[in-house]
């Protein structure tokens, strides 16, 4: 076995927080900076990662998990040299391909074609190597028609598809992947996972940041759990996932945010998420035989038809049971949204969930991207009370397997 190809030692990154100038747009702020105008006064600082040390061996796939804001993306950005560390060092031996947040690594004034060549050159590829991979990159990303269009006209989904395709096909020895599965339709996500599997089998070294525990479980040989910028647990994937999910489970049945700390995205702020039982109320112990009510309160600055507000319901070990949006189903039945405060209620019908512990993760997006994508924030504890058959106890079956326990209709089609 060769030695580590990534060696991180005491890595820390501090961001200084500056007061926003009232009424200033992002564009104005950037322009002011470019013109060298005095910067706004500092109002505090945040250590995004703190004293992080670990090593990754050649061919290892290291998963990085942790709650929103725990420093995962910052860690990858420092490793990919997109931002400098405040302290510590990171030594990397090999050609690095980084797939970070949408847009990083692309030049938006250049066309898709030009960006593929530029990224190849950054990765140290030779011209003929890039040419050999070119068609596969374009095909995988599905951007044939837009090859000669400037990247600034691409949707964020198209940018992510191209970024992933370049990273996957240009054969970097070391690959950093941040949340690629979050964007894109189900079919593209599936293809990404397939491609990730291939990359892993080729023995390349990968650091994979994800909120998707199933994906981490499937492809990572080892994992690291970041909590408020520090390593909480680093070790076998299963052990790390278990530690992470334990912290998620400790959340209660209601979560309310102060406006300043509320999860927010462009034009939307999440204020409250709560679960209660139609009969059991908010005791925290729900019955599978009652309607389970999910209340979601949010503040909207704008209302538009592609806005999707909802949640993922997951089992405590991280498997998604389902995703629900207010915009599912027939348009005429969607709840009306208004500018300002909205209290939305989703009803999980009686007789649907099995006994068990579930968690809810808020999801708000428009047709192209996430506006809010939080880790699970509340827990549902469900006792099985519906569909109980007198014959179960006879054969000593106290519970059913599975996350859901619908009582389905059976009929006899005859026989002899
Ligand atoms: N450019 C920045 N300026 C100031 N603070 C920042 C900046 N980037 C990140 N932070 C802060 O650093 C902390 C870590 O953020 P980071 O984006 O690394 O978290 P994350 O684990 O990737 O979160 P998520 O799961 O939501 O993607 C957060 O408190 C965040 O607000
Ligand atoms: Mg991140």
Q: What small molecules does the structure contain? A: adenosine-5'-triphosphate, magnesium ion
Count the E strands: 20
Radius of gyration: 24 Å
* Most strands sheet: 6 strands, mixed
For this structure, the CATH topology of the largest domain is Rossmann fold
- Report the end-to-end length measured between terminal Cα atoms: 66 Å
> What is the overall silhouette?
globular
Task: Provide the structure class.
Answer: alpha+beta
CATH superfamily of the largest domain: P-loop containing nucleotide triphosphate hydrolases
Strand residue percentage: 25-35%
How are strands sequenced across the largest beta sheet? 5-6-7-3-8-9
Task: Tell me the domain tally.
Answer: 2
* SSE topology string: EHEEHEEHHHEHEHEEHEEEEEEEEEEEH
- Low-confidence parts, pLDDT < 50 over ≥5 residues? none
Number of helices: 9
Report helical residue fraction: 10-25%
CATH architecture of the largest domain: 3-Layer(aba) Sandwich
What's the overall average pLDDT, rounded? 85
What's the CATH class of the largest domain, please? Alpha Beta
């Amino acid at each position: 076995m060769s030695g580590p190809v990534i060696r991180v030692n005491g890595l820390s990154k501090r961001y200084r927080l500056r007061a926003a100038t009232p009424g200033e747009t992002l564009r104005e702020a950037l322009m002011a900076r470019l013109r060298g105008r005095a910067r706004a006064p500092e109002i505090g600082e945040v250590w995004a990662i703190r004293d992080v040390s670990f090593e990754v061996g050649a061919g290892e796939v290291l998963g990085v998990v942790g709650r929103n804001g725990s420093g995962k993306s910052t860690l990858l950005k420092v490793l990919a040299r997109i931002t400098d560390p405040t302290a510590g060092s990171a030594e990397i031996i090999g050609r690095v391909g980084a797939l970070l947040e949408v847009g990083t690594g692309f030049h938006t004034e250049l066309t898709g074609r030009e960006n593929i060549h530029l990224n190849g050159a950054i990765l140290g590829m030779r011209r003929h190597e890039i040419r050999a991979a070119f068609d596969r990159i374009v095909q995988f990303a599905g951007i044939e028609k837009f090859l000669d269009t400037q990247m600034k006209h691409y949707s964020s989904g198209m940018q992510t598809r191209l970024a992933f395709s370049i990273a996957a096909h240009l054969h970097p020895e070391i690959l950093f992947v941040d949340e690629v599965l979050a964007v894109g339709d189900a079919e593209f996500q599936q293809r990404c996972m397939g491609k990730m599997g291939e990359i892993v089998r080729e023995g390349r070294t990968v650091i994979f940041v994800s909120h998707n525990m199933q994906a981490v479980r499937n492809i990572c040989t080892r994992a690291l759990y970041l909590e408020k910028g520090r390593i909480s647990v680093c070790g076998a994937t299963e052990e790390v996932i278990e530690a992470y999910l334990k912290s998620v489970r400790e959340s209660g049945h209601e979560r309310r945010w102060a406006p300043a700390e509320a999860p927010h995205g462009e034009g939307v702020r999440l204020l409250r998420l709560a679960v209660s039982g139609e009969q059991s109320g908010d005791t925290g112990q729900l019955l599978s035989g009652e309607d389970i009510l999910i209340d979601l309160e949010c503040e909207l600055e704008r209302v538009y038809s592609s806005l999707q507000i909802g949640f993922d319901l997951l089992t405590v070990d991280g498997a998604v049971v389902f995703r629900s949006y207010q915009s599912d189903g027939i348009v005429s039945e969607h709840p009306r949204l208004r500018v300002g405060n909205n209290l939305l209620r989703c009803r999980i019908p009686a007789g649907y969930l099995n006994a068990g512990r579930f968690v809810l993760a808020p999801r708000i997006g428009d047709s192209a991207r996430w506006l809010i994508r939080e880790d699970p924030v509340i827990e549902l504890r469900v006792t099985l009370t519906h569909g109980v058959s007198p014959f179960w106890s006879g054969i000593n079956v106290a519970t059913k397997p599975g996350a859901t326990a619908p009582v389905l209709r059976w009929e006899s089609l005859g026989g002899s």
